[in-house]
Amino acid sequence: MELGTLGIKDIQEGLQKKTFSATELAEASFSAIREKDPKIHAFLEVTENLALEQAAAVDKKVANKEKLGALAGVPSALKDAILVKGVRATAGSRMLENYTAPYDATVVEKLKGADALLVGKTNMDEFGMGASTENSAFGVTRNPLDEERVPGGSSGGSAASVAAGEAVIALGEDTGGSIRLPASFCGLVGLKPTYGAVSRNGIIALASSLDQVGPFARTVEDCEIVFDVIRGKDPLDATSVDAQVQDPNFKIQNLRIGVPKEYFGEGLDPVVGDVIKNTLKKLEDAGAKLVEVSIPHVQYALAAYYIINTSEASANLARYDGIRYGFSKAGNTLLETYLESRGEAFGTEVKRRIMLGTYALSAGYYDAYYIKAQKVRTLLKQDFEKAFEEVDVIAGPVSPFLPFKIGEKMQDPLAMYLVDIYTVSANLTALPSLSVPAGKAENLPVGLQLMAPAFQENLLFKAGSVVEALK
Fold first, then answer.
1. Catalytic pick from 21, 154, 158, 435?
2. Strand partners, 393
3. Is residue 154 annotated as part of the catalytic site, yes or no?
4. Is the pLDDT of residue 335 over 80?
5. Does a structural domain hold residue 141?
6. What pTM, to 2 d.p., does this model score?
7. How far apart are the first and last CA of the chain?
8. Which of 83, 91, 167, 404 could join 408 in a cystine, given CB atoms 3.0 to 4.6 angstroms apart?
9. Tens digits of per-residue pLDDT, 309-321?
């Protein structure tokens, strides 16, 4: 059985018709993992016993003609920053190498409640700090479409697992592009929901005001089904919102697509720009109206993002002190224990961001850096609000360049940070954003990014479906 050819509805139909069983679906996933993962390294942990127990429960429901959950029998992978009770959760770091989650994240409870099969935990950049999944303490993940290239990051393992046909859907977590970038690089659909649309309870935090959990899938339809399962207010996450889902009266002929002039200037690889422009032209030919808009403060978004990201990371990662939990290396004094534990267990990028964030929050620099970055965030939010007065969605590239080769940018942190130049604005402004395959350049996938006003994910799915149909 080839999982790469099955969508969620295909699986539901096959189970009902008894074409295959949930146990056979689980076995197909494990077979693909055994065959492909030694090269790709998408998974850090395979939860075979858990998935087979869940599959047996689904098969029992089918036999008893009970109602099946929305994700019944669907092999599902989870980024290793998402807690699954009784399973290791490393966040890609030596610091948490032996940490076992004591409870399920809310999104995991929802997946289990929908009868999904949880097949394993996927590789990621350490604590979500990276755009290539090269910063994991447990090795690099390769792009299944070209094994010499990165799958994007930080949720690269989740994207690679779906692109390789090891799982049908996966969850990632997006702080500045960590779902959309791997989706673009691996030719998938990926959603960064509105901040608050999905609970963050049980997610290992990087930057609490930016992080958001979302799905990877091969189709827009599957992405929407998963989002509908995991969204909603959670009493365990005070930032979550019970937003009313708006089902837009959608016609492509009525769609106004904003095209920011700032997204097509210096820094954009011409071959990527050509694919995006070609897709926008096809949308226009299909009846959509293209409107040039301006996001004047977007030029400051990346700088503001990295100040806020590193500041919040330095605060969140203070809990890993070698005392309470995680890796510990005893020193002669308490301070030595802190220094030895953090110095040995944290990777280079994590140390870099902790130092940058601590500096930005320190006395004498707090106003100059952190407060100024928050002011830019407000201005950027106002820019998007103004743009959405004229248009329904905003479109542009996900990445300024094609998937790059493993090792190509590792020695230049600033070059790596530039990968996020088009994606961080959605996190700073809390807006939903969808990456959908737009075509290929040099035989590598290019993703189109669509953004919408807050809690209008359904509009993104409708517009994304049109893009999908244009291929």
1. 154
2. 257
3. yes
4. yes
5. yes
6. 0.97
7. 26
8. 404
9. 999 999 999 999 9
